[in-house]
User: Fold this.
Amino acid sequence: MKSKIYYRNVLVNGIRIFYREAGDANAPGIVLFHGFPTSSHMFRDLIPILAKKYHVIAPDYPGFGNSEIPDRKEFSYTFDHISQVMEAFLIEVNMLQFAMYVFDYGAPIGFRIAKKNPEWIKAIISQNGNVYQEGLGIKWSERAKYWKNPTEELREKYKSAFKPDTIINQYMSGTPDGVVSPDGYTLDIAYMSRAGMDEIQSDLIFDYQNNVNQYAEYQQYLKKYQPPVLCAWGKNDVSFIPEGAYAYKTDVPKAEIHLLDSGHFALESHADEIGELILTFLQNQQQGNNL
Assistant:
């Protein structure tokens, strides 16, 4: 029987945060951290699969999806700040023991929370959620030049990252023909077209350098605490390349790695496969008393 999905809002640090919730509230928890330029909508096909056995929570970050969009003059759009809001959100909804799914922007957000609250994290599922230099595709060398020399001209140039053609390409590149619904990228284009979004997202593009600077801290967390890790990775992603998946084994030798014939948004083509990988992985961890 398909689990009912609830669409909720909660006030966190004075900001309205939207989230999706499904599954038995008494079941083990899974938190889904979305990426750029999307929202919890990206998990629309995965949530019903996981909710058969787990309590699933998928929030939208401030400035994303259906959550409130604070004015950037009053709210600092940095990954540190968004992570603080997400940490407070988890406390507010009483989700303090969970496996976390991290994708794209969700990786630096989730790992900031994990290294601060290691006792919360029961397992990590990384779907193109990179925390290693090895996983950075070729475009990041150009971004690094921008970070070192942040001219207004380059800031304007990188606004192309959330233009319609770029967003569509993120969804379509590296995926099998005919399997990607237009619903996801059409919704993301609408979200990214809202007033003021260009400057908000530009702030985050510039701040991404601080995620790379913290990679060593995330790796130290992994090495020290050895959380069970599953990588379900779109192998054709040009942003976060497969080497980023294999790099997890450097710090967690028992990490389980699966490369999928898909791109950055692997859930668009492989939600069923990823869902089954997660269910099997977590069941095996439970049987081994790791969860």
